[in-house]
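Hey, can you fold this one?
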Amino acid sequence: MLLAYRCAVASPHVRAAAIEATEFPALADEKDVWAVPKIVVDGIPQYEGNVHERVFVQRLVAPVFE
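Sure. Predicted structure:
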């Protein structure tokens, strides 16, 4: 999550928020959270589990270049 926050600080085009799934079970169900971390991009669940920093950033910028 720290990397997501760092990306949000570095770019005005990125927002990051951490939500504790056990404290917000309805939201976790809505986003189909089965593993953490769960990465949601533009409101759409995208990735589950921890990823390397390089992979995270590549996935973050990929929609921009498509």
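The first strand starts at residue 38 and ends at 41. Let me know if you want another pass with a different chain boundary.
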